[in-house]
Amino acid sequence: MKKIEETEKKPSKGKAITSFVLRIIFYFVVLLALIYLYEYSGIDSVHFIYNEF
Predict the structure, then answer these.
(1) pTM of the prediction?
(2) Which of 30, 44, 48, 53 is the most buried (most CB within 10 A)?
C-alpha cells in the first residue's frame, strides 16, 4: 500500500488574505457598475408623453 502524506500543502495565509481582498474589490467594482448602469438607464425619470393629462 502507498503511504499517504500527512503533511499536505495548505495555501499560505498571505495568499488567502490576498484572494479575499481581491474578491472583495471585484465584487465592489461589479456593484458600482450595476449602480452606474441603473442610474444611467434613467428608470426613475418620466418618459411618458402624456404626463400632463
Answers:
(1) 0.57
(2) 30
Give the model's pLDDT for residue 16.
93
Distance of CA 52 to the CA centre of its chain: 42
pLDDT tens by residue, 7-24: 666 769 999 999 999 999
| Alpha-carbon gap, residue 6 to 8, rounded angstroms | 6
CA 33 to chain centre: 10
Q: Which amino acid is at 32?
A: L
Local structure of 10: helix, strand or coil: coil
Rounded to a whole number, what is the largest CA-CA distance in the chain? 86
